[in-house]
Design the sequence.
């Protein structure tokens, strides 16, 4: 997979050279190219921003440097079509599903902006030529798109064949499809068996794989009901077996008229 990033803060993307993403690049599975947007300016001050039409606070990124940068980068391989990923707080949510979809693409071009974002005509122009995705990593406002690029690239790169080293490690991901889909992961433990007087849940030492799987699923329900009740409320109840219904009942959850689970009103959490 080829990854291009165009930014006025190339040093912010330095983490792409370390850890999982850096190793994938070193092994030739990822071809990461960071570009300084100011390299496509022509004035003495390398200006990339200007005042917004219509007035108001802040500055907007000028279309010309972006246009010249994206023409050169997207045109650099005439045999390939990039997907252009534009981080913006008004984008579609970046989810595990989108990470999986993007991980199958041969070429991604990320355009992290600063100020109040990029002149709209740039997005419209490239959307007329390429697959452009405006994406947000969450409901909070950052100062720019570089951190979202680091987040998205890490989520995408770990899905590439051979990057994680262990295909099974995807299987239990909270948001991966499968039996643990839409359940948060429960607690994990390693050696030593006792630390500061704290032991390990006995079942994990039992060697009984069926009981361990069930315990883990129960713990996943505890975490999910506490931290992400929306995931339980919107789940297809057909995904829940008899034991799941038992633990949900113990946690104070019951099916409503449509079969979907909700918190039983009479149960007060401590
Ligand atoms: C400028 C960004 C994010 C990119 C994602 C997320 O765009 C803005 N609009 C209003 C106020 C501030 C900004 C700052 N800004 C480029 C840019 C913010 C991404 C961003 C994002 N993806 N929060 N913020 N989830």
Sequence:
């Amino acid at each position: 997979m080829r990854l291009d990033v165009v930014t006025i803060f190339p040093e912010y993307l330095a983490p792409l050279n370390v850890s999982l993403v850096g190793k994938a690049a070193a092994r030739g599975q990822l071809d990461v190219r960071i570009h300084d947007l100011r390299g496509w300016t022509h004035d003495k001050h390398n200006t990339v921003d200007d005042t917004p039409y219509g007035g108001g606070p802040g500055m907007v990124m000028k279309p010309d440097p972006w246009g010249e940068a994206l023409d050169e980068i997207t045109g650099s391989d005439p045999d390939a079509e990039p997907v252009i990923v534009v981080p913006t707080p008004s984008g579609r949510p970046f989810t595990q599903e989108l990470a999986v979809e993007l991980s199958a693409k041969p070429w991604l071009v990320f355009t992290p902006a600063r100020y109040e974002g990029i002149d709209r005509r740039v997005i419209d122009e490239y959307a007329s030529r390429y697959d452009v995705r405006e994406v947000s990593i969450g409901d909070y406002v950052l100062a720019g798109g570089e951190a979202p690029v680091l987040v998205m690239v890490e989520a995408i790169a770990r899905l590439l064949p051979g990057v994680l080293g262990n295909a099974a490690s995807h299987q239990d991901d909270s948001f991966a499809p499968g039996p643990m889909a839409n359940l948060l992961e429960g607690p994990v433990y390693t050696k030593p068996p006792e630390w500061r007087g704290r032991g390990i849940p006995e079942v994990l030492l039992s060697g009984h794989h069926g009981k361990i799987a069930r315990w883990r699923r129960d713990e996943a329900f505890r975490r999910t009901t506490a931290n992400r009740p929306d995931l339980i409320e919107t789940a297809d109840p057909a995904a829940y077996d008899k034991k799941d219904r038992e633990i949900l009942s113990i946690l104070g959850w019951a099916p409503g008229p449509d079969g979907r689970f909700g918190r039983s009103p009479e149960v007060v959490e401590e």
Observations:
- The two ends are 49 Å apart (CA to CA).
